[in-house]
């Protein structure tokens, strides 16, 4: 076995590989850029080598620098993680030349599966079900229209070298096929330096389901069930689960056998993933093969008990697989939520900054549940503008899907993050959505359910009542503490009443509290009663309550006259007042939000790249106003309505904070 391996990556996946290497008794080497000197993966590894400036194209993806780190450290093998150099055949070739083991597939398999046209032809030759389409070179838009008619609308126009949603268009008519062909060709040339285009049938009611395969260098290959990855935003996965709530055993077996056949056809060795599109009738079609470890691999590990990183290391060491297909048993259900540093209330724009608070839920491994958090950050650390905004991958496992979802809800509510924008509220909303709970979703789920963007969660009344009851009980505890101030004047004892009015989400709940040593019974005006117990002391930022025997986790902040409570994706201002205070509060005029309709505000911390308009210019709805760069992504800010520019407050090169005024309108 290898004595020392280098991890050619960063963040949570580098930390994940280090954990398995440590378990196997293998020493690890981390590499890091200027931005990652204090990163968690650097702290966890046995040794670390600096490889250059913060931008990835000057450090993590520069093959020569990684090779120098390998030579300097004396590592015998390299695990590439995902992204960066993980699917770069030149890197695999450089390692082979240096006689260093690549903990991944052979160079030929990477090349064969890296090109969408080539991979689809190989899939057809291996008798893998593929989407009807045209794989040859398409010369012009008119030929694209002709081919589209032969296949039958709707069609998907795709860049051969594409990825991440670039160079991809859906066409339902001849005109859309013409436009889509040219747009895809332009995007492909710009993004990948390769403008080859192919056309295939667009699958309606599509689900994205992938098969995990594992092969060795001795001709053995197995599949380890499937992962449902249909919940995506802009072709990027957000929630994954295993197994899929949609597949039956016969379809699972057919997909698995075809995936292994494809892997063997290209001489694959290591862990890999074959992705399929599955329609509403369970017809499945090959999409692509990812020749690396997937981001979502933990859910497969949780339902099979197989450590995929360990298997990759053993295969790279020349060992045959120690498990056969008959040994693979799918046990229970696992769900993964990707926690990103992006603000769902601002169109999921990236959010950078310091994690002033980072307290993930405790990891649990029990016979009836598992909570796992794969992360590469820590409290006080910084989310950098240079890399992927992933903070963590939160996973839960339970014997049934409903139980796994419930454990995930509690884990999300228990996850404390402050200092940056993040998508925890959105993930909580997905976990409670009826379509997700039923398992009846397609890849259009997010676009269909939140077409105007995410604007927060409105909780049902039954949940509001549970939160109101908890808030009343918590407020009483805080009031009692306030009566115990030392040094009071004689005969000035403060008494805590039992009648309160709890106001949240625009509703008021008059309630009385009957307390006892074990908790409190909260009785609402309509006679309903809630038994509240819990573990909360004034000042705690997390309250673990139990209401009527059911758990309720609340993130707690103090506001005047009550609490800021966050739970199940909702962010609530909760006021707890005496009946007289509530009566007077109802007479207070409502504070209106400031009118920003004539201002262009910066939606994220970023750098102005260019300004497209000038003072006095009339702009139309949707017209580009300026471009702001954040996390190496350019974001075009557009006019929301027809207006005249009256003032411009920032220019190219200016660094702005959130809500800084960029320009004003008449």
Structural class: alpha+beta
Per the principal axes of the C-alpha atoms, what is the gross shape? globular
Q: Tell me the strand order in the biggest sheet.
A: 14-13-10-11-12-15-23-21-20
Percent strand equals 25-35%
Any low-confidence stretches, pLDDT <50, length ≥5? Answer: none
Explain this structure to me?
The chain has 666 residues and is an alpha+beta fold. Helix content is 27%, strand content 33%. It is built from 17 helices and 40 strands. The strands form 9 sheets. A 9-stranded antiparallel β-sheet has the order 14-13-10-11-12-15-23-21-20, sandwiched between helices. The protein is globular, with a radius of gyration of 28 Å.
Concise overview:
The protein has 666 residues and is α+β, with helices and mostly antiparallel strands.
Record the SSE blueprint.
Layout: E1 4-7, H1 11-23, E2 27-33, H2 40-44, E3 47-52, H3 63-73, E4 77-79, H4 89-97, E5 101-102, H5 107-114, H6 116-125, E6 133-134, H7 141-151, E7 155-159, E8 168-171, H8 174-192, E9 197-201, E10 207-215, E11 221-233, E12 236-242, H9 249-265, E13 270-278, E14 284-290, H10 297-304, H11 308-316, E15 333-340, E16 342-343, E17 349-350, E18 353-354, E19 357-359, E20 364-365, E21 370-375, E22 382-383, E23 390-398, H12 401-414, E24 416-418, H13 424-432, H14 434-438, H15 445-449, H16 461-483, E25 499-504, E26 507-516, E27 519-524, E28 529-535, E29 542-547, E30 550-559, E31 562-567, E32 570-577, H17 579-585, E33 599-601, E34 606-611, E35 618-619, E36 624-630, E37 633-638, E38 643-648, E39 655-656, E40 661-665
Parallel strand pairs: 1-2, 1-4, 2-3, 4-5
Antiparallel strand pairs: 6-9, 7-8, 7-9, 10-11, 10-13, 11-12, 12-15, 13-14, 15-23, 16-17, 18-22, 19-24, 20-21, 21-23, 25-26, 25-32, 26-27, 27-28, 28-29, 29-30, 30-31, 31-32, 33-40, 34-36, 34-39, 35-38, 36-37, 38-40
